[in-house]
Design brief:
CATH superfamily of chain B: Quinoprotein alcohol dehydrogenase-like superfamily
Structural class of chain B: mainly beta
Order of helices and strands of chain A: HHHHHHHHHHHEEEEEHH
Largest interface: A-B, 69 and 78 residues
CATH class of the largest domain in chain A: Mainly Alpha
CATH architecture of the largest domain in chain A: Orthogonal Bundle
Oligomer: heterodimer
CATH topology of the largest domain in chain A: Cytochrome Bc1 Complex, Chain D, domain 2
Radius of gyration of chain A: 29 Å
Helix content of chain A: 25-40%
Number of domains of chain B: 1
Number of helices of chain A: 13
Largest sheet of chain B: 5 strands, mixed
CATH class of chain B: Mainly Beta
Strand order of the largest sheet of chain A: 4-3-2-1-5
Largest sheet of chain A: 5 strands, antiparallel
Strand order of the largest sheet of chain B: 1-30-31-32-33
Radius of gyration of chain B: 21 Å
Shape of chain B: globular
Number of strands of chain B: 36
C-alpha cells in the first residue's frame, strides 16, 4: 500500500503537473544571478505553457531589450532579424545551444570558445551582455510558440463587399432571415472582421451551449404533444422546459415522437455549399454594415 | 455472420509472466479472455473481445460492480485517457506521472507509484506495457520508467527525449519479444519525430527509426532542404501494432512541422502523417503509405493501424485498416503496403481525389490562408487518439467519428514560419459511430449521437456488442450488427478512454474511464 510520504509526494507531483496555470506558478523561480533579483514565470498560457523543462529559462523583457541591441550590433547580419537564420548564419531559434541554455549557461561558453565567424570579439562579451543576449534569443524562441502574443490572426478582409451583398440576397439566402437595416444593423461596427466571419459561419456558440434555444416537440404514445426549449436529449431520454417554465422529462420509448427545430439549421446547411470566395465576400459585406 | 479467422495472437515469450502471478503461456496462443495484456488487448489493435457472456440479448442486465476514483486533491489533469492492462486479476492504470495497481475484481487500490516530474506537457497518458515482472510507462518529462508489477517500486528510469526541445512522452509502450517500443510527442519547436526499441532489462537503446530522412536517404526528395527535413516533425504518439508472422511493427506518424504554415516545407514531407511498417528487430522500414501528403492541418496520423485477416476478391489477405484523423478510411495489404480501399468515412472537403497509390491529393486552396479557409474536418479531426474497434464476427470497423468544420488561418508572416504559424478557429460538428465494411469502405450503418463534441474509444465483442461513450455523458452498448442502442448508464461525463473486457471467476467485466473515475461493470447471473 502507498505510504504517507508517497501520498504527500503524489499530491505535490500532481499539483505540479496539473492545470497550466498551476504548473507555471509552480515553476521554480530562476536563481538570482550576479545581484539580479530572482525571476518568476508569467502565469496563464494553459496546457501549452507546460511545454519544456520546469526549470526553463524565464525571459526578462528589459534584459531582452538590452540583448536586442547587442544582437543588432553583432548578430543580425548573419542570423537575420528574427534570429531564424540568414545570410550564412544558422537558425538560432532552433539551435540546441540556445534551447539547452539557461541565462547564458550554454550561449556564454559557446561564444567564449570562439565563435565560428567572429572569433575573439565575441569572447569579450561581459557576463551581463551574454545573459542579456540569452534573454533576447529565448524571447525569439518564445515568439514561435502558440503562447506568444505574436500568435494572432492577420487581415481577413480580402473579399468583394458588393459580391457579398449579392450572395447575401441571392444564393446565400441570408436575406430570408436577416437584413442590413434590421437585425444586422451596425454589425460591422460591433465586431472585428474575423469575428464577423466566425459568427456567421458558426453562430451556435460553444457547440450548442447558449445562444437561441432549440425548440423540441415531444408526442408521447398516449397523451398530448408537449413543446418547449430543449434541455437535453440522448438515445434514451429527452427533457425540455415548456412555456410555463415546467421541466418535463420523457423516456424515449418505442412510439414516442420527437421533433427538433434547430434555429441555426440554415447556417449548418450553408457549411456544405459556401465557397471560400463567398465566405470572404460576405465578411467584407458585413464589415460595411457600420 | 461468418466469423473470420482471427490472427493468431502470439504475445511472445517476453510478455509471459515467469515469476509470481505468472500467465499461462498456452493461453497466449490466442486472444486471452482472463486478461487485457496490451494497450489494444492483443497485438492486432482490433480491440475485440471474444467474450460473449454479455451479449445483445442480455446486456440490459449489465450492472455496476465497482467504482474507483482518484483521490488527488487539487488535481485537474486526472482524466483516464489510457487503457488499463489487466494481468492475473490486477488492473494497471495511469494518468501523467501516476500508475496504480487495482484489484480487477473490486477496484481496490493495491499500490500507487508517483513519478517526480521535471516538466513537460501533461496532456494524457495512454497506459503501461508489461513484460515478465516488469511494467513500463512513459512520462511527460521524457522518461521511460520501469516498475516492479508486484509493488510499484521503480527499477530504473531512462530519458527517451529532450525536454528542452519540448518533446514529451505519453504512449503505452508495446512489448515485442525482447524490445520495448516507445514513441514521443512534441509539436512546438519543429523537431524530428522518431520511434525506438529499448532493452527491457536496462532501458538502453536497441534501435532508432527517424520519421524524417537525412540527405541521400529515400524520402529526402519530398523536402526542399536539409533544414526543413531535420525540423520536420512526424511524432509517434500512437501505440503500434505487431504481426508476429511478418515480424513487422505497424506505426502511424504525426503531422509535419511547422504545423500549419507549410510554405517552408513544400513537398509530401515523408514519412510524416504516414503509416509505416518497421522490422521489429532492426527498425528498418519495409513500406510506407501516406494518408496526408504535405499535411497543414495538424492531422496526425497516429490512429491505430488495425490488423486482421480478410478476404478480398475471394482471396485471403493479410490486411491493415486505419480510420485517419483526416476523415479517410484505408484498407492496405499489410505485407506490401499496397492500397485496397481509400474512402472517406465522413464527408470532407480538403482532397481533390486520390493518386495512383490510393493516397488523397490535398487541395492547395484548402491549406490554411491568411484570410481563412473553411475546411472539414477541423483540427480535432474526424477521428483522433480514441481507438476504433474491428469485429472479425461482423467484418465491420467501428469508428466514433466527428464531422466538423472550422476556419483555418495562417498567422506567421515571417519568410521562415516556425512552430505552428497559424491555427483553426470556431467550428460546428456532429458525432456518430460509423460501421465500415473493410472490403469496400462503405458505411454499413451509422448511428448519430444526439449532440456533438464527445469522443471515446470503442470495444466490440463476440456478444454482438459495441461499447462506447455518447456525447451526452452515457456509456452505451450498441448492437454490433445494426447499430441499435441497447443499454446505457449515465456516467455523468464523457467516456475518456476505450472500454476493455475480461473474465474472472466466470464473470465478464467491462471497464471504462470517465474523467478521474473508473467504472467496472459486470454481468451477474446468466
Amino acid at each position: 500500500m502507498i505510504s504517507n510520504f508517497a501520498k504527500k509526494c503524489a499530491v505535490a507531483a500532481t499539483t505540479l503537473a496539473m492545470s497550466a496555470t498551476l504548473a507555471l506558478a509552480q515553476t521554480p523561480a530562476a536563481p538570482g544571478r550576479a545581484g539580479r533579483p530572482p525571476r518568476k514565470a508569467p502565469t496563464g498560457g494553459g496546457l501549452l505553457a507546460q511545454a519544456g523543462s520546469a526549470d526553463k529559462h524565464i525571459v526578462d523583457a528589459e534584459a531582452a531589450e538590452r540583448g536586442k541591441k547587442t544582437y543588432i550590433q553583432e548578430c543580425i547580419t548573419c542570423h537575420g532579424p528574427t534570429a531564424r537564420g540568414g545570410q550564412g548564419g544558422s537558425d538560432l531559434v532552433r539551435s540546441l545551444v540556445v534551447l539547452h541554455d539557461r541565462y547564458g549557461s550554454e550561449i556564454g561558453p559557446f561564444l567564449k570558445k570562439g565563435h565560428q565567424s567572429q572569433g575573439s570579439p565575441a569572447a569579450q562579451f561581459s557576463q551581463e551582455k551574454i545573459e542579456d543576449l540569452a534573454d533576447f534569443l529565448h524571447l525569439k524562441v518564445g515568439d514561435t510558440l502558440r503562447t506568444s502574443p505574436l500568435f494572432r490572426a492577420q487581415n481577413v478582409l480580402i473579399g468583394d463587399a458588393k459580391a457579398g451583398q449579392a450572395w447575401f440576397n441571392g444564393d446565400g439566402k441570408c436575406s430570408q432571415c436577416h437584413s442590413a437595416t434590421g437585425n444586422l444593423k451596425g454589425v460591422g461596427a460591433k465586431y472585428e472582421a474575423i469575428d464577423l466571419q466566425q459568427r456567421f459561419l458558426f453562430p451556435k456558440p460553444n457547440f450548442g451551449r447558449g445562444g437561441k434555444p432549440t425548440v423540441v416537440t415531444v408526442t408521447p404514445v398516449t397523451g398530448t404533444a408537449v413543446t418547449g426549449n430543449l434541455i437535453q436529449m440522448d438515445d434514451f431520454n429527452v427533457s425540455l422546459r415548456d412555456a410555463d417554465g415546467e421541466y418535463r422529462s420523457f423516456a424515449r420509448v418505442p412510439g414516442l415522437k420527437v421533433k427538433v427545430d434547430d434555429p441555426y439549421a440554415a447556417h449548418i446547411e450553408l457549411l456544405d455549399r459556401i465557397t471560400d470566395k463567398n465566405m470572404h465576400d460576405i465578411t467584407a459585406y458585413l464589415e460595411t454594415l457600420k | 455472420m461468418k466469423r473470420l479467422k482471427l490472427i493468431a495472437v502470439s504475445l511472445g515469450a517476453a510478455a509471459v509472466l515467469l515469476a509470481q502471478g505468472a500467465l499461462d503461456p498456452a493461453k497466449l496462443a490466442k486472444q486471452p479472455t482472463d486478461s487485457w495484456p496490451t494497450y489494444s488487448g492483443d497485438y492486432t489493435g482490433q480491440r475485440f473481445s471474444p467474450l460473449k457472456k454479455i451479449n445483445s440479448t442480455n446486456v440490459q442486465n449489465l450492472s455496476l460492480a465497482w467504482l474507483y476514483r482518484i483521490n488527488l486533491s487539487g488535481a485537474t489533469a486526472t482524466t483516464f485517457k489510457g487503457t488499463p492492462l489487466v494481468v492475473n486479476g490486477v488492473a494497471y492504470i495511469t494518468i501523467p506521472d501516476h500508475v496504480w495497481a487495482l484489484d480487477a475484481r473490486t477496484g481496490r487500490e493495491i499500490w500507487h507509484h508517483v513519478h517526480q516530474s521535471k516538466g513537460g506537457i501533461h496532456l494524457g497518458n495512454r497506459g503501461v506495457g508489461i513484460s515478465g515482472n516488469w511494467l513500463y510507462f512513459e512520462t511527460p518529462d521524457c522518461m521511460l520508467v520501469s516498475l516492479n508489477v508486484k509493488d510499484g517500486k521503480e527499477r530504473w528510469a531512462k530519458s527517451i527525449c529532450d525536454l528542452d526541445q519540448m518533446y514529451y512522452a505519453s504512449i503505452a509502450p508495446l512489448v515485442v519479444k525482447n524490445h520495448i517500443m516507445v514513441g514521443v510527442s512534441g509539436d512546438d519547436l519543429d523537431i524530428p519525430g522518431y520511434f525506438e526499441a529499448r532493452d527491457p532489462e536496462t532501458g538502453d537503446l536497441q534501435w532508432h527509426w527517424s520519421a524524417v530522412p537525412k540527405k541521400g536517404e529515400p524520402g529526402f526528395e519530398t523536402w526542399p532542404t536539409e533544414d526543413a527535413a531535420a525540423h520536420g516533425g512526424g511524432m509517434t504518439w500512437g501505440t503500434s501494432t505487431y504481426d508476429p508472422e511478418l515480424n513487422l511493427i505497424y506505426l502511424g506518424t504525426g503531422n509535419p512541422q511547422p504545423v500549419i504554415a507549410g510554405k517552408g516545407r513544400q513537398g509530401d514531407n515523408l514519412y510524416t502523417a504516414s503509416i509505416v511498417a518497421l522490422n521489429a528487430d532492426t527498425g528498418k522500414m519495409q513500406w510506407y503509405f501516406q494518408p496526408s501528403p504535405h499535411d497543414t492541418h495538424d492531422w496526425d496520423n497516429n490512429q491505430v493501424p488495425v490488423l486482421y485477416d480478410g478476404v478480398i476478391n475471394g482471396q485471403k489477405r493479410k490486411l491493415l485498416s486505419m480510420a485517419c484523423r483526416n476523415g479517410w478510411f484505408f484498407t492496405l495489404d499489410r505485407v506490401t503496403g499496397k492500397s485496397i480501399v481509400s474512402k472517406e468515412y465522413v464527408k470532407t472537403n480538403w482532397a481533390k481525389g486520390i493518386d495512383g497509390r490510393g493516397q488523397p491529393i490535398p487541395n492547395p486552396e484548402k491549406e490554411p490562408q491568411f484570410a481563412g479557409a473553411l475546411v472539414s474536418p477541423n483540427q480535432g479531426g474526424a477521428a483522433n487518439w480514441p481507438p476504433p474497434s474491428f469485429s472479425p464476427d461482423t467484418g465491420l470497423f467501428y469508428i466514433n467519428a466527428s464531422r466538423a468544420f472550422s476556419v483555418w488561418y495562417l498567422y506567421d508572416t515571417d519568410d521562415k514560419p516556425e512552430g505552428w504559424g497559424g491555427t483553426d478557429r470556431g467550428g460546428w460538428s456532429e458525432s456518430m459511430v460509423q460501421a465500415v465494411d473493410y472490403k469496400t469502405g462503405a458505411i454499413k450503418w451509422s448511428h448519430k449521437w444526439e449532440g456533438s463534441g464527445g469522443r471515446s474509444g470503442l470495444l466490440s465483442t463476440a456478444g454482438n456488442l459495441v461499447f462506447g461513450g455518447d456525447t451526452s455523458g452515457n456509456f452505451v452498448a450498441l448492437n454490433a450488427t445494426t447499430g441499435e442502442p441497447l443499454w446505457h448508464a449515465n456516467v455523468a461525463g464523457s467516456v475518456a478512454n476505450a472500454p476493455i473486457s475480461y473474465e474472472l471467476d466466470g464473470k465478464q467485466y467491462v471497464v471504462v474511464g470517465v474523467g478521474d473515475q473508473l467504472f467496472g461493470f459486470v454481468m451477474n447471473g446468466k
